[in-house]
Write a structure and sequence with these properties.
With about 400 residues, the chain is α/β, with parallel strands linked by helices. It has helices at about 35, 45-60, 80-90, 105-120, 130-135, 210-220, 225-235, 260-275, 290-320, 335-345, 355-360, 365-375, and strands spanning about 1-5, 10-20, 25-30, 95-100, 125-130, 160, 175-180, 185-190, 195-200, 325-330, 350-355. It is globular, with a radius of gyration of 21 Å. The structure holds 5'-O-[(R)-(carboxyoxy)(hydroxy)phosphoryl]adenosine (KG4) and zinc ion. 5'-O-[(R)-(carboxyoxy)(hydroxy)phosphoryl]adenosine (KG4) binds near residues 213, 225, 226, 227 and 332.
Length: about 400
């Protein structure tokens, strides 16, 4: 079963062909992230325009392994291009999967309407997919099934690995606890099987990724701050800490499975001002200059420790409460090496799984996997973009 999958919920335009939910045949991603940097956050109109520009080239590229000749379609006439695309899908693809929400309405509409048109023109079934839930299915994709020579994006291939464990024991055991931790979501699910999901809790305010991004901006880093915080934190040496930075672990000991990260952001601001009297956070910071850089690295380390401590503790609480055998990490923040390291220590109690970093952040492979394992073909007339689609199932 080969699924052409499309993901356009935010600032990535992604298309992939996934076989049987586990084999990546092709995985293409175009991102407009850089264009938003100067605005300090994603500008929905800019993201939607970029989606429109990229959607057809990205889908065409994802089908490249199935074209008969080596020549790319992009140089041909529009008529020939659309005809060959249609023929290729009819011959080689079994279904279309598309993210319908949650996300930005302008971005979602581009992917949803394109997918519906493809389904209508080719007569293929179409499967609507929830973006947040799809993240966890990146754990079911297996890198060893990548078909050599047909793939276009080598960095995305090794995935579905068991953290801190032996390579020959990748199987997820149920019940499992799944932590989806991204820019907009921090959610915990109980997975009794690959189809049977129950939402257990989520953030009451900011998501963990949002906390990384907002505090990264306070420190003077640009958009997409989680990775910047990680690399600054890696440069920090605990022994060199000459000042006290004390950050809370919000709701870490609370008995619910909910999270809260907005207070942490405020605490970072307060501590920052204590260490830099008279200086606006992020304003005149020279990240690579002497003692300021040392201070920034210290803040990055402390922020990363606080966020990851809470994520590990809450997930562990859920795992113990529901007798989980496996823990699954997913979403952009699951790419964080410190988070992965902290979870890997729990490896003697649970099998801990996380996708390769490139499949933690937004991609279309996870959409194809989710469609196969937990999707339902739906009449294209009734599929619509749903920016506020609930993740509480
Ligand atoms: O899943 P994703 O690509 O998009 C959403 O669905 O939101 O997640 C993006 C989030 C951003 O907040 C980004 O800062 C965070 O993932 N992120 C990281 C790392 N890489 C991406 N956070 C911490 N450490 C990282 N290495
Ligand atoms: Zn995402």
């Amino acid at each position: 079963m080969k699924i052409l999958s499309i993901e356009t919920s935010c600032d990535e335009t992604a298309a992939a062909v996934v076989e049987d939910g586990v084999k990546i045949i092709c995985n293409i991603i175009a991102s407009s992230t850089k264009m938003h940097e100067k605005y300090g956050g994603i500008v929905p109109e800019v993201a939607a325009r970029e989606q429109l520009k990229c959607i057809i080239p990205v889908i065409t590229e994802s089908l490249q392994p199935f074209f008969q000749t080596n020549s790319t379609l992009l140089h041909r006439s529009v008529e020939l291009q659309s005809l060959r695309m249609k023929e290729t899908i009819i011959k080689s693809i079994d279904a279309i999967a598309v993210t319908v929400g949650p996300g930005l309405i302008g971005s979602l509409l581009v992917g949803v309407e394109t997918a519906k048109t493809i389904a209508f023109v080719t007569g293929k079934p179409i499967i609507p997919v929830n973006h947040v839930i799809a993240h966890m299915y990146a754990n079911l994709v297996d890198s060893s099934f990548v078909i050599p020579g047909l793939t276009r994006n080598p960095s995305s291939f090794s995935t579905g690995s068991r953290l801190g464990g032996r390579d020959d024991n990748r199987k997820i055991q149920f019940p499992a606890i799944s932590l989806v931790v991204s820019g907009g979501h921090t959610e915990l699910y109980l997975m009794k099987s690959s189809k049977d999901l129950t939402w257990l809790g989520g953030t009451l305010d900011d998501a963990a990724g949002e906390c990384f991004d907002k505090t990264a901006r306070l420190l003077g880093f640009g958009h997409g701050g989680g990775a910047s915080i990680q690399s600054a934190a890696e440069k920090f040496k605990v022994s060199s800490l000459k000042f006290k930075i004390s950050l809370p672990r919000p709701m870490m000991h609370d008995t619910t499975l909910n999270f809260s990260f907005s207070g942490l952001k405020t605490a970072v601001m307060r501590e920052w001002k204590k260490c830099h009297p008279g200086l606006d956070p992020g304003s005149s910071l020279k990240i690579d200059s002497g003692s300021t850089a040392g201070m920034t690295n210290a803040f990055a380390y402390k922020i990363q420790e606080a966020i990851t401590d809470v994520l590990v503790k809450k997930t562990l609480r859920a795992a113990n409460q529901f007798g989980a055998k496996s823990i699954l990490l997913s979403g952009g923040v699951a790419a964080n090496t410190r988070l992965r390291e902290k979870f890997s220590i729990l490896n003697s109690q649970f099998s801990i799984h996380a996708p390769d970093a490139a499949l933690c952040t937004d991609n279309a492979v996870m959409i194809g996997a989710a469609a196969l394992f937990n999707g339902t073909p739906t009449d294209w007339h009734s599929i619509t973009a749903q920016p506020d689609l609930s993740v509480e199932i």
